[in-house]
Design goal:
The complex is a heterodimer of chains A (147) and B (488). Chain A has 147 residues and is an alpha/beta fold. Chain A contains five helices and five strands. Chain A has helices spanning 17-29, 42-51, 75-84, 102-111, 123-140, and strands at 9-13, 36-39, 62-66, 93-97, 115-118. In chain B, a hairpin with a 5-residue loop joins strand 6 and strand 7 (471-478). The longest helix of chain B is centred in the middle third of the chain and has 137 residues, at 145-281. Classes of the chains: A alpha/beta (147), B alpha+beta (488). At the A-B interface, helix 1 and helix 5 of A face helix 5 and helix 6 of B.
């Protein structure tokens, strides 16, 4: 994995290892080779985002994949913390969750979530969604840093 | 504390008894008083009678004495009185005898004295020179007739007085009896009155106590109902939350199952490619069992996993949908059910055409103030069912009708399809339950959904059907939905 200072880091906050693996596989299948840093709980993820030298607040561009159901805190909480922080709020957040509850989706968009993807049981749709996410990633990448 | 039946009966009986006793006593008092009065009158009449007799006797004596004295004076030739006073005395004498005879008519002892008295009077009158008309001259004259008159009348007087005394005594004893009876009746009245008062007082107090208890029970009941309602609301929302969380969390592992099944499928495809290549190049290295595993067993297993997972996802989604139904806000509006039904039929256009179905909307359907989406979903589900369960090869024939019944509205969807066994009429409304031949796709969700929707709109859905006779589903909702009456 080549690391340039402009390449986008993908921060995946997902407590389900299976989901994490599936997401990663599909991202890779979509031809995206960016670094993926995986967190299984909210606190360590927030710690990384705000305080790590490699995190988006101190360092370069990042994309956050966020699951709403986490063991230690709610994803909504993480989302609002990111979006209310002056430095972190420009980081795009993709909410990936199992529910398609309308109220919850609206709430996420109100808080500033950039994309909301439902994890469907129908795997083909899921793979397609992830691949679209790959397209999205290539759009936000800084032009001179080839994927 | 409510009074028992027997207590009430006892109270009624004792009050009746007291009243009867009281009336009897009163009657006794009245009768006694009446009788006493009659007695009194009789006594005074008797006394008056005796006085009259005495007065007449006095008059008789006086007249007789005068006549005898006049006779004496004439015999001694002292003075000749004028005729007039003497004749008056004679008249008085006759009258008194007649009066006395009348007064003592009922007394044979007195009556027996009158012939002698009359005879002596006649002699006195004769000797006084004033004979009564038609009076016979007596055969023999008695000496000193006035003394005899005096003795006779004295005896009469004594008789009369004795009679009076006897009668008065008898009267007195009867009167005493009545007074005793009166006193007893009075006592009885007082007793009955007291008992009645005590009984009524006790009864009233008991009544008051039970009324108080009833009021308390009522207040308690209201509180209990309120408490229970709040509990139910809480339980209901808890169930909805539970269903939501469960279905939500159940989907998470399913994503994994499906995802990795797909991974396995991809792997199987690569394996199949390898197998093809190996069979082409070195067929002797492939055992037949390996081929079966790669070409048949694995895809079969994957197919089953996939179809089961998909089914499970549908079931979870159904639970999720039902739980959301309870949380959805109801937005009532005035709906022309004709248009609503037509709209539903239009959206099912393709399905209706495929089934060659005939759908009739029996206009006009009533207007309803209710939730559009709820009614649309109910109708859509019922029509879809009618399309799905036709009778054999016959094209479905569906009729949508409606009527207003008081403050409620009924919308019916009737088909001439295969019908539902009456034993399953309740079951078909349960989640994941179906009835009859399972030859059509479905999870047993539609009617559960319809019923949940109907409940949500304060309504009901009922079924009238028999096997082979078609089915009629009737939605019954209030004509005007009111949020206040509905349970969240």
């Amino acid at each position: 994995m080549t690391q340039t200072q402009h390449s986008v880091t993908i921060i995946m906050i997902e407590d389900d290892e299976g989901h994490a693996l599936l997401i990663e596989k599909n991202i890779r299948r979509a031809g995206i080779s960016n670094e993926i840093i995986h967190f299984t709980d909210g606190h360590s993820a927030l710690e990384f985002i705000f305080n790590s030298d490699r995190g988006p607040v101190r360092n370069g561009p990042a994309l956050i994949l966020l699951d709403l159901n986490l063991p230690d805190m709610s994803g909504i909480n993480i989302l609002s913390q990111i979006k209310s922080d002056e430095h972190a709020r420009r980081t795009p957040v993709v909410v990936l969750t199992t529910t398609d509850d309308k109220q919850e989706i609206e709430r996420c968009y109100d808080l500033g979530c950039n994309v909301y993807i439902t994890k469907p049981v129908n795997y083909e749709n899921f793979a397609a969604a992830i691949r679209q996410l790959g397209l999205f990633l290539s759009v936000i990448q800084v032009p001179d840093a080839g994927a | 504390m409510p009074q028992s039946q027997s207590e009430q009966r006892r109270f009624r009986r004792s009050i009746m008894l007291f009243m009867a006793l009281g009336f009897a006593a009163l009657l006794g008092v009245v009768v006694s008083a009446g009788l006493l009065m009659v007695m009194n009158q009789r006594e005074s009449r008797l006394i008056t009678h005796t006085y009259k007799v005495q007065r007449e006797i006095a008059a008789l004596r006086f007249a007789s004495t005068r006549l005898v004295a006049a006779n004496l004076r004439r015999n001694q030739e002292l003075t000749i009185e004028s005729e007039a006073p003497l004749s008056n005395a004679r008249i008085q004498l006759d009258k008194s005898i007649a009066q006395l005879s009348t007064l003592t008519r009922d007394n044979p002892r007195q009556q027996a004295r009158f012939p002698l008295l009359t005879a002596i009077a006649a002699q006195i009158e004769l000797q006084a020179g004033l004979p009564a008309q038609g009076a016979l001259t007596p055969d023999a004259l008695i000496e000193r007739p006035n003394d005899l008159v005096m003795r006779l009348t004295s005896a009469m007087q004594v008789d009369e007085e004795r009679l009076l005394a006897a009668r008065t005594n008898q009267q007195r004893s009867i009167e005493r009896g009545f007074y005793i009876a009166l006193g007893l009746a009075g006592l009885l009245l007082v007793l009955v009155g007291t008992l009645t008062f005590v009984t009524i007082y006790a009864y009233t107090r008991e009544l008051n106590a039970s009324r108080q208890a009833l009021r308390q029970a009522n207040t308690g009941l209201e509180a209990a109902v309120q408490e229970r309602t709040a509990e139910l609301k809480r339980a209901n929302s808890e169930i909805q939350r539970f269903a939501y969380i469960v279905s939500h969390d159940l989907r998470s592992p399913l994503v994994n199952v499906m995802g990795f099944t797909a991974e396995m499928e991809t792997a199987t495809q690569s394996l199949t490619g390898l197998l093809d290549k190996a069979q082409e190049e070195r067929p002797d290295t492939i055992a037949p069992a390996t081929e079966t595993i790669i070409r048949e067993d694995l895809p079969e297993a994957i197919r089953f996993i996939r179809s089961s997972t998909e089914k499970m996802d549908r079931l979870i989604n159904a639970i999720l949908r039902l739980s959301r139904l309870g949380r959805r806000e109801i937005t009532p509006e005035w709906l022309e059910m004709d248009k609503v039904a037509q709209g539903v039929v239009d959206t099912l256009h393709k399905r209706i055409e495929d089934a060659h179905a005939h759908i009739e909307i029996a206009s006009p359907l009533p207007r309803v103030f209710s939730d559009r989406m709820g009614l649309e979903q109910m109708l859509a589900n019922l029509i879809e069912n009618a399309l799905k369960y036709g009778a054999g090869s016959e094209p479905p024939d569906i009729r949508i009708s409606g009527r207003t019944a008081g403050d409620r509205v009924e919308i019916s969807v009737a088909d001439k399809g295969r019908g539902i066994d009456p034993r399953d009429h309740e079951r078909v409304f349960d989640l994941f339950r179906r009835s009859g031949q399972q030859d059509r796709p479905g999870e047993g969700i539609g009617l559960a959904h319809v019923r949940a929707l109907a409940y949500r709109l304060d309504g009901t859905v009922t079924l009238d059907s028999a096997l082979g006779k078609g089915a009629t589903f009737t939605i019954n909702v209030p004509r005007q939905y009111s949020a206040a009456q509905s349970q969240p």
